Amino acid sequence: MSFTLAIVGRPNVGKSTLFNRLVGKRLALVDDTPGVTRDLREGAARLGDLRFTVIDTAGLEEATDDSLQGRMRRLTERAVDMADICLFMIDARTGVTPTDQVFADILRKRSAHVILAANKAEGAAADAGVIEAYALGLGEPIRMSAEHNEGLNDLYAQLMPLSDAFEAQADSDTPETDVDLDEDGEDLSDAPPVPTRAKPLQVAVVGRPNAGKSTLINKILGEDRLLTGPEAGITRDAISLTTDWAGPDGVAVPMRIFDTAGMRRKAKVQEKLEKLSVSDGLRAVKFAEVVVVLLDAAIPFEQQDLRIADLAEREGRAVVVAVNKWDIEEHKQEKLRELRESFERLLPQLRGAPLVTVSAKTGRGLDRLHTAVMRAYEVWNRRVPTAALNRWLTGMLEQHPPPAPQGKRIKLRYMTQAKTRPPGFVVMCSHPDKMPASYSRYLVNGLRADFDMPGTPIRLHLRSQN
Ligand code: GDP
Ligand code: GDP
User: Would you say 12 is a known binding-site residue?
Assistant: First the structure.
């Protein structure tokens, strides 16, 4: 199962150029199927490892009469309704035109997932147009040059998580009919197929020396019968290793795990340990998508743990906190309460991040850890549709109106999600400089709670618009 992407926008912005690039020589059909308009072209597209269907609203001539406007609107609406994701293209050299605004309105109302592309953006002449595109309220524009093959990596980066989501959805929608037995004779018919990803999920395990990082990683590797990658055997000096880590549902997820000081401990640098672990941790965090902060249950939330957790947050990584050596903990319930309390107090910037207890030694809790990692990754990639976001904002403003410094109420006009990995939101408002931090926190906490986004930093940017 894959998804359908519609390329929409006014004539002459470069839609067909992109369409041709995505479809290449694999143009499946130039559509003359009855029932489907001739004005919509459909093709089998390929971008990196993604395979999907692309629709182009070609066949419109630039003109100014009303009938064309109407036709363009109907055509666009049909394309939008057929598609899972819309790529809305504007011409960055021209900037945002009134016709672009008409398209933006249609998309805001009708499309669940909009990707904005400012095309013809090769060269500095397009800078102003790219910036203007933000004001459409459809997220951060991709700087693209369809003609010069630029911006397709960014397009890929936006499509990939959505594609994963559609695949997951399709898997759960499709009933399995074949019964499949593995070598132990176990019925695998309920196991969803192994997802194919562009690259392994990048996970860093960080924490102070002796927290149990090596033990944890070895456990993950040891229990993994699908061990892959030439690095696997050389854990001693390896900085990263790739493996398929199967979760509780049996789905093996390719992961590239970055190890930090744990490995180095075995090298003869005992005295430099503290220093090493921080700089290695830093490097691992920079590479990672998800950071697992591993704590020792006996001495949790030490200074070094706090520093590395804070670093992961500032770098914008998805974070999971794992408390290790849970096997030797006697008063588990009481301890867990204490841990949660310390977590809230000492790492308020990571509010909502999952806290899981594990024993790297016995393997207990590893399934929970797997689930938490996958979920944090999913949330980190989450894109909230603009329409839903603005409905939400209206409610938040009613519930708790923004302050009115010097008698002038700060007006929040609308908001959009400009980024993922981690989620970043832009709010257009009057006097952003006067907005108190407490109100921004109110919005961030609300976003986290109402759109269920634990385990990821959330960025909120205020942009001035009167
Ligand atoms: P459509 O009507 O939106 O499908 O637009 P086309 O794909 O037919 O492109 C319209 C014109 O813009 C053509 O002359 C293209 O060669 C040109 N064009 C497309 N993409 C780019 C680009 O990235 N940069 C520049 N400079 N021109 C482009
Ligand atoms: P690293 O420095 O973070 O890589 O830590 P290691 O993996 O080398 O572990 C440090 C020590 O803690 C070793 O003696 C491990 O056997 C022990 N250890 C690691 N995980 C656990 C666990 O879950 N339970 C217990 N009881 N000991 C553990």
Answer: yes
